[in-house]
Specification:
Aminopeptidase; alpha+beta; Ribosomal_N-acetyltransferase; 176 residues; GNAT family protein
Amino acid sequence: MKPLQDSDAQVLFTVVDTNRHYLRTWMSWVEDTTTPADSEIFLQCITQQFAKGLSQHFAIFSEGQLCGVCGFNKLDTKNKIGTIGYWLIAPFTGNGIMTQCVSTLLNIGFYERNLHKIEIHCAEHNHKSRAIPERLGFLHEATLRDCEWLYDRYEDHAVYTLLSSEYRPNPLPENL
């Protein structure tokens, strides 16, 4: 993991563009990312949000290749709540990469940012995405009905939460 920077725009766009079919299954923003300029705008936006303490995003690398993004899509400093989001391209799923990344985000959130609560929202039927918070000890707190328009239908979201008082960092298996 490394912080996303403006200079990552071209490689980020290329990864999204070449994995468009897979990513669009659960990511509505994919259809709005049609040129490298769209990735540049996204990176400029998150850089501004980071400077204000409102978000923090990371590029995920494996085997020297950018293969995904994770981070705090929203940081509510007043209430000390962070909302984590993530995506990974298909060839890198199923190897524990995202579990390790989200575990790192938990450490950042609870120890560096002094958050009280961390949330993860997943499409209800996105079982791969839901497995991450379940594996890391989050509580399935609620299901929000029809909360995201995904191309031709509304999707319910499963909301997972973890409080700082509940967080017990566990060593990850060596094969992750």
